[in-house]
Specification:
Oligomer: single chain
Strand order of the largest sheet: 1-2-3-4
Distance between the termini: 23 Å
Number of domains: 1
Number of strands: 4
Structural class: alpha+beta
Shape: globular
């Protein structure tokens, strides 16, 4: 939270095999794995629509 802004609201989501995941009001997704923190900021409706179809299948190593 300190890195994205104290007033930002995050919504918990399920994202692949992430240990924890959340999405902010702008659509950015954050995932915590055992070794990494991943941030995805998809811009553009066409790309977001295609990525949205695949997000649940992501496997974080």
């Amino acid at each position: 939270m300190a890195n994205i802004g104290a007033d930002e609201t995050l919504t918990s989501i399920s994202w692949g095999n992430a240990k924890e995941a959340a999405q902010d009001a702008n659509g950015r997704r954050f995932a915590m794995t055992s070794q990494h923190v991943v941030e995805m900021d998809v811009r553009g409706t066409a790309i977001a629509a295609e990525m949205g179809k695949r997000l649940g299948t992501w496997k974080f190593d």
